[in-house]
Write a structure and sequence with these properties.
CATH superfamily of the largest domain in chain B: RNA polymerase sigma factor, region 2, helix turn helix motif
Oligomer: heterodimer
Order of helices and strands of chain A: HHHHHHEE
Distance between the termini of chain A: 89 Å
Number of helices of chain A: 6
Radius of gyration of chain A: 45 Å
CATH architecture of the largest domain in chain B: Orthogonal Bundle
Helix content of chain B: 55-70%
Shape of chain B: globular
Structural class of chain B: mainly alpha
Strand order of the largest sheet of chain A: 1-2
Strand content of chain B: under 5%
């Protein structure tokens, strides 16, 4: 037996859990290895010391504090709100889980629809209008404000109106 | 006529408590509060926090007694609860210590020793002092710390430890051996400092 093997069985040696053959091998090793012999003696001493370490006691008011906690717990259990909550806790949890599931499904559904069919969702983009560019007024010709009682288009002629000399940022909505 | 005092086993007491006998609970508290305190104290090295953990454990016993089934010893069950609560508390304390070290500086770390008012029953005469041993236990990794306290301080059997930690007896044995060697090495290093 070498020192490494002795380390592995040192606890079994102390607690007499070795068979005769192993015990003899260990005895032979510690008879010639001072390091392992000292280690064994030191370990036995350490374990004895640990067994006799001071024992601490709970404080005198420990039971009173515990009983006060139990009283508080019992009072809480008796309060009508808590009682109802406990009684229906399973139903409440199931309802909350169902609500969460519905909300999540709805969110996923709308996201999927938006990805697959972008035209169904209005989108917006910002375009820059350079100075001097005519701003198209295509929708104005059909606007009821510019149609007279005979159905004629009275849209004012704006073709000669130029964009003023500053840049506009206009939000164009694709319909 | 003299009153005959019947000594109930822990398992009988918990069965009586499960049937609504609160005196059985009081008796279990009396039997276990100090044992649990000594286990948790060696684990946390803080008297105040350990007492709180023992209170939580016994509170859990009160509220969850119906969960106990007589497939395990009562002591195993209650130590399992205490060990889990102590582990959570240790994690919380470690986080708090990290914060306080950052705010206080490394040299101000406090080492808590219980006050003399709590009357230790024995003084040690060995070459190892309690303070040194506790310091070495604190340094052990969690898995070694738990087995060494359960075995060397609580004097539980390998089988009980195996049930509490939910590991095989072979693992318990090898872990105990490694913990002892590690502890011995740590104490040697502490002595040399």
């Amino acid at each position: 037996m070498d020192c490494y093997s002795f380390d592995k069985i040192i606890s079994d040696y102390i607690e007499s859990n070795l068979n005769l053959k192993q015990r003899q091998a260990a005895d032979e090793h510690i008879a010639k290895c001072t390091r392992c012999y000292e280690k064994l003696a030191d370990m036995v001493n350490l374990l004895d010391t640990m067994k006799s370490l001071p024992r601490y006691k709970t404080r005198l008011d420990f039971n009173d504090r515990l009983m006060a906690r139990i009283d508080r717990h019992n009072q809480q259990k008796e309060s009508p709100f808590i009682r109802v909550f406990h009684e229906y806790s399973r139903v409440i949890s199931v309802a909350a889980a169902a609500l969460l599931l519905v909300a999540t499904s709805l969110f996923i559904y709308t996201s999927v629809v938006a990805v697959n069919n972008p035209s169904s969702v209005p989108s917006a983009e910002i375009r820059s209008i350079k100075p001097g560019t005519n701003i198209p007024r295509t929708s104005a010709s059909t606007h009821p404000e510019f149609v007279n009682s005979n159905g004629e288009n009275t849209t004012p002629d704006t073709s000669n109106i130029e964009n003023p000399g500053y840049e506009h940022n206009i939000m164009m909505v694709n319909e | 006529m003299d009153k005959v005092k019947i000594k109930y086993t822990d398992e009988e007491l918990i069965a009586r408590f499960q049937q609504g006998d609160e005196r059985a609970y009081v008796e279990l508290v009396k039997r276990y509060k100090d044992r649990l305190l000594n286990f948790v104290f060696r684990y946390l090295n803080s008297y105040e926090q350990s007492e709180d953990v023992v209170q939580d454990t016994l509170m859990k016993l009160y509220t969850s007694a119906h969960m106990y089934r007589e497939i395990a010893k009562f002591s195993t069950w209650i130590f399992t609860i205490a060990a889990n609560l102590a582990k959570s508390e240790l994690r919380r304390l470690k986080r708090r210590r990290v914060i306080s070290i950052h705010s206080m500086g490394f040299n101000d770390k406090e080492y808590e020793i219980p006050s003399e008012a709590y009357n230790p029953e024995k003084e040690t005469t060995s070459s190892y002092g309690e303070k040194q041993i506790q310091q070495a236990i604190d340094t052990l990794p969690d898995q070694f710390k738990t087995v060494i306290i359960l075995r060397e301080i609580q004097q539980l059997s390998y089988e009980e430890i195996s049930q509490i930690l939910d590991i095989s007896i072979g693992t318990v044995k090898s872990r105990i051996n490694r913990s002892r060697l590690r502890l011995q090495k740590l104490l040697k290093e502490l002595k040399e400092q």
